[in-house]
Design a protein that fits this description.
The protein is an alpha/beta fold and about 425 residues long. The chain has helices spanning about 20, 25-30, 35-45, 50-55, 85-90, 105-120, 205-215, 235-240, 260-265, 285-290, 310, 330-340, 355-365, 380-390, 410-425, and strands at about 65-70, 75, 95-100, 130-135, 150-160, 170-185, 195-200, 220-225, 245-250, 275-280, 300-305, 320-325, 345-350, 370-375, 375-380, 395-400, 405. It is about 30% helix and about 25% strand. Helix 5 runs parallel beside helix 6 (about 105-120) and helix 13 packs parallel to helix 14.
């Protein structure tokens, strides 16, 4: 073979190597074309010059990531295989991260635990939001996340918890507190929102200690924490007096009545949003307390509770009212609620309501912007359909579902023709 025809690629150090012929502007133009995380990482690993330029033109969409072993990705996906290299290079630029593992493979789970340690080491000064699901957090020092504002931990066991200084939102879901669980918190931390959902072995003393540390809380959720007793809330207005939102579901113990808790709720003078799970208990005293104390309740969710209509109608300032799907409201009660709560804008309800009663409710609900009805059997003819359209006038979002809704064929035909004409106009 003629040696003059042999092509020799210049070495990496040679000035003739194409990588050395590209200036920073050209490299960054190339990198900006890469929308896939793996491709961007591969390019950054090409050489030091590419890596430095990748940091300079780091895409804004890569500041939020999801690392999990499922197919549904709510944020930009980052594979567990690429995660270590990516975190080493770009960890200081990531602001929001979800690390989730749902599986039984112990070795794979250990890989996720190692990634969590890398997140702690490389993202501590940049991460604002962190979600951890199904990972061993026993060796994680959350206080090393210096700017973290939102922390969501689920499906984990905890021996101790030390909160980051800048934390504003803490959510614990399906978490088990191990024996001798210790709560460590700096007094400089000012949490605004806390959620405890299905936190096993959370004892009264630990929870009260948490509330004492966080008297400035504005939003609190406590639900399905079966080791807590109802009496833990009998000083809630003294411990967290500035609450504006409270979601509470504590199973009553034998012989206990909600009177102490109800009295405390009446002292929460800034409470605007209340979600109360009563486990089929009467909430008459609760509603009366809210009314008598003139609390600014605007948003009320009633779950699995018994109540009297005339008591509920005392809450004239309600803007949003939701009944859980296990609470069925009669159609006449539904109409009276809409008629007698003049500033109501949103309502969710389960009711076997007729089209005629629905129209009557819409006539009363002048301020309604959202109405969701879980119903059973309903027949809507063309005249009823047009009456409903006239009443909502494009200002109300009406959703009727969960049952068998029978509509006339001419309604479907009319809508198909309207859709065809709209498409024709657009084209």
């Amino acid at each position: 073979m003629d040696s003059s025809q042999i092509t020799i690629t210049p070495s990496r150090d040679s000035p003739k190597n194409i990588l050395n012929l590209l200036n920073d502007e050209c490299i960054q133009a190339i990198l900006r074309k890469l929308t896939n995380v793996g491709d961007f990482l591969s390019a950054a690993e090409t050489c030091t010059q590419f890596q430095e330029n990748a940091k300079q033109c780091y895409p804004p969409e890569f500041k939020e990531f999801s690392i999990d072993n499922e197919y549904i990705k709510w944020k930009h996906p980052l594979s567990i295989k690429c995660a270590p290299s990516f975190l080493r290079i770009f960890g200081h630029l990531i602001q929001s991260l979800e690390l989730k593992y749902n599986g039984v493979d112990q070795k794979e789970k250990e890989n996720y635990t190692k990634v969590l340690k890398m997140i702690e080491n490389h993202c501590g000064r940049s991460l604002i939001e962190l979600v951890v699901n199904g990972i061993d957090i026993s060796s994680t020092n959350f206080s090393k996340f210096h700017v973290l504002e939102k922390l969501n931990i689920s499906c984990c066991s905890m021996i101790a918890m030390e909160l980051p200084l800048k934390l504003k939102v803490l959510k614990l879901n399906y978490v088990k507190c191990e024996e001798k669980f210790e709560w460590h918190q700096n007094h400089a931390i000012h949490l605004e929102e806390a959620e405890f959902y299905n936190v096993d072995y959370l004892e009264d003393s630990t929870f009260i200690e948490f509330l004492k540390f966080n008297s400035q809380l504005q939003r609190l959720t406590i639900n399905h924490c079966d080791h807590l007793t109802p009496s833990v809330f009998e000083e809630i207005s003294n411990l967290v007096p500035d609450l504006i939102e409270l979601n509470i579901g504590i199973r009553p113990i034998f012989g206990y009545h909600y009177n102490g808790l109800v009295t405390q709720l009446g002292e929460l003078r800034q409470l605007k949003c209340l979600n109360f799970i009563a486990y089929n208990q009467s909430i008459t005293s609760l509603i009366n307390t809210l009314a008598w104390n003139n609390l600014p309740i605007e948003d009320l969710t009633i779950n699995d509770a018994r109540f009297e209509l005339e008591d509920l109608l005392k809450l004239k300032q309600l803007k949003r009212l939701e009944f859980s799907r296990c609470t069925t409201i009669s159609s006449d009660v539904f109409v009276k609620i809409v008629k007698n709560l003049p500033v109501l804008t949103k309502i969710q309800i389960k009711s076997n309501i007729s089209p005629h009663e629905l129209i009557k409710a819409l006539e009363y609900g002048k301020h309604l912007i959202e109405l969701k009805i879980f119903t059973f059997d309903m027949h809507i003819d063309l005249h009823t359909y047009e009456s409903i359209l006239m009443l909502i006038k494009g200002q109300l979002e009406l959703t009727v579902y969960d049952g068998t809704i029978d509509v006339d064929d001419d309604i479907l035909v009319k809508n198909i023709l309207s859709l065809f004409n709209w498409i024709h106009c657009v084209i």
